[in-house]
Amino acid sequence: RDLVRSRGLGDVYKRQQRTCIACRATRPKREMVRLVHTGGGMVEIDTTGKAQGRGAYLCPDPACWEKAIKGTILERAFRSTIKQENRTALLESGKSLLEEKAVGQSE
């Protein structure tokens, strides 16, 4: 946790914020989905938030996923090229993850 000292108010914790690489919206880290560029050149969804590699965050919005994965945004964020089969696998697993989150929130 990031601890911020404020005068007279005691210890105040600020929330960790992350920016979506597609829409550039800032949200709390727990609301975002982390993608990680592994050493093998693959991009994977990091559900733990602790995987090693270069990370980038996306909103839980299907439009952001489409924009980032189909365009060049993801390649720019990871500073490398991403193979087409990796893109399709990411899009499919991202859609299922977003559906799981939507079901979990509605219950």
Account of the 3D structure:
With 107 residues, the chain is an alpha+beta fold. Helix content is 36%, strand content 28%. It is built from 3 helices and 7 strands; from the N terminus they run βββββββααα. It has helices spanning 62-70, 73-78, 84-106, and strands spanning 2-6, 10-14, 17-19, 26-28, 33-37, 43-46, 54-58. A 3-stranded antiparallel sheet has the order 6-5-7. Strands 1-2 form a two-stranded antiparallel ribbon. α1 packs antiparallel against α3 (84-106). The longest helix is centred in the last third of the chain and has 23 residues, at 84-106.
Key traits:
107 residues; alpha+beta; 3-stranded antiparallel sheet; two-stranded antiparallel ribbon; 36% helix; globular
Write the SSE topology:
Blueprint: E1 2-6, E2 10-14, E3 17-19, E4 26-28, E5 33-37, E6 43-46, E7 54-58, H1 62-70, H2 73-78, H3 84-106
Antiparallel strand pairs: 1-2, 3-4, 5-6, 5-7
Low-confidence stretches are none
Q: Average pLDDT across residues? A: 87
- Number of E strands: 7
Identify the overall geometry: globular
Strand content: 25-35%
What is the structural class? alpha+beta
Sequence of strands across the biggest β-sheet:
6-5-7
Span between N and C termini?
29 Å
Number of helices: 3
**Radius of gyration from CA coordinates:** 16 Å
What pattern of helices and strands is seen along the backbone?
A: EEEEEEEHHH
Largest sheet, in brief, is:
3 strands, antiparallel
Helix content: 25-40%
